[in-house]
């Protein structure tokens, strides 16, 4: 098990899709240089050599290998090899994330951004946080103190090494060694929490390790019911306030229901009391996920008023008809009623 710092010291491993620039140092051999691209079979086509296997090598190893190959034909085979365009990377994100799976990350895309931590947004260099955000963010059962990063070692073998990262140290102390840059083929596993984490750690993880926005539905006794777009991990109470707040007297504030579709397709229902002084808490004011529904039920007072209205409304209509009927006089001028 390596240290997080070791992951930052790893060197780039060449693979299919990488574009390289080859330059021969001998002026008489410069015609053999130029642009190279590693093909799907792991080889690159080179002048004079035909093709050479480069997949699985570092830049330094590939430079030594090509120097050795050109040494069979040239008196001065010295050369430089540089990476002109890295390939798109594919990483696997597993464990306690919203949508585990295989994800493509572009080296030219947006990097991760961590609130309150400087130097983590480096466009073009995806990190562990980038991949977790891409996978929909962490679940409420995640242990961000135990995130495993597995990485393939140089060479054609399937040997890997792994390090354990503590993302809480990144979020709390700005420890950038806990958020290394990713390589193609990396696997990230977010462990499940065996014991509850401190609330401040949960809140930090919810803010930083999730997508920017979510879509939820607020229905029932609120002023503006319906679908609403919120910032990721907006707590339950704040979401209700964003929907205009509960209707006075009609809302049952001590039995607000959170309906959630789980990853395995089951539906869970939890009830909470609406407490405006309660901070983010899994037990009392949970952060919401994309696709959640919040139901604010009708109070006994509201139900009673609705029943009375259903009874009184027909009577009122009948009374209005009777009054209209009586307003007309008979043919002899006398009142009908």
3D structure, described in words:
The protein is of the alpha+beta class and 337 residues long. It folds into four domains: 17-85, wza like domain (wza like fold); 89-208, Roll (Outer membrane lipoprotein wza fold like); 213-296, Roll (Outer membrane lipoprotein wza fold like); 310-337. 23% of the residues lie in helices and 27% in strands. The chain is built from seven helices and 15 strands. The strands form four sheets. It has a five-stranded mixed beta sheet with strand order 7-6-10-8-9. Strand 6 (89-95) and strand 7 (101-105) form a beta hairpin. Helix 4 (167-173) packs across helix 5 (199-208). The longest helix has 28 residues, at 300-327. The protein is elongated. The termini are far apart.
List the helices and strands and how they pair.
Elements: H1 4-8, E1 19-24, E2 34-37, E3 43-46, E4 50-53, H2 59-70, E5 79-85, E6 89-95, E7 101-105, H3 128-134, E8 142-152, E9 160-165, H4 167-173, E10 187-192, H5 199-208, E11 213-220, E12 226-231, H6 236-242, E13 256-261, E14 267-272, E15 293-296, H7 300-327
Parallel strand pairs: 6-10, 11-15
Antiparallel strand pairs: 1-2, 1-5, 3-4, 6-7, 8-9, 8-10, 11-12, 13-14, 13-15
Helix pairs in contact: 4-5
